[in-house]
């Protein structure tokens, strides 16, 4: 009768054996002194309990390591989003055909011809408000790098001012 009760309640006893009076009563029944089969069953049961407890501890260790790894991964993803999230926002705005529009280019002639004056360029990137940037006077309008500098500085200005 006790063996049937142990079998029927063994799963619950494994989890709740320290809190459940019925489980404690069932586990307290000790027939191992009089019956060799009962002694072997009790030893196997205790071995199974120890094994289950060892697996539970290992599971808890693995779960804790996984949770820590997920926290680290989340922190890395947050950092990447802060650093490069503007790229996603920029990509979402590229549906507009007018990616970069140069509105005005203003270069004044210096009174002293030995000095070069910077060129003021007003640009609009995607749907942003127009903003001005400066190209060093050492780069002439005819220079191939002039537009490279304008594009680079326009993107940087858009990133710094528009996407935050």
TrEMBL record:
One of its GO terms (biological process) is positive regulation of proteasomal ubiquitin-dependent protein catabolic process. Signal peptide: none annotated. GO terms for cellular component: extracellular space; nucleus. This is Clusterin C-terminal domain-containing protein. InterPro entries: Clusterin-like, Clusterin_C. Residues 1-159 form the Clusterin C-terminal domain. The keyword Glycoprotein applies.
